Fold this protein.
Amino acid sequence: QVQLVESGGGLVQAGGSLRLSCTFSGRTFSRYRMAWFRQAPGKEREFVASIMWTATGYADSVKGRFTISRDNAKNTVYLQMNSLKPEDTAVYYCAARFESATYDYWGQGTQVTVSS
């Protein structure tokens, strides 16, 4: 069974940076598409970024500020977040999918708070 554990969240001032990490276990990491989602209070969960091999995709709201990457040797996916804004405040979730159309596996989430 796939397990995902996020880390790296915290409190940062607007304009600052954070790097989130998600460690994958239970299956062959390189075969899975990995993604980051986020959910702000009172809002729906939304897609942030995804990566499969070297192909990446981003939500318009984070393009140019966030970078997703993966290290298959470490079974870890990262989200480098720069130029953070208060509206980036949310719980950030790591997710994985293999052959299905939806993300089947989710981490517990890590809180990111950006103060103005």
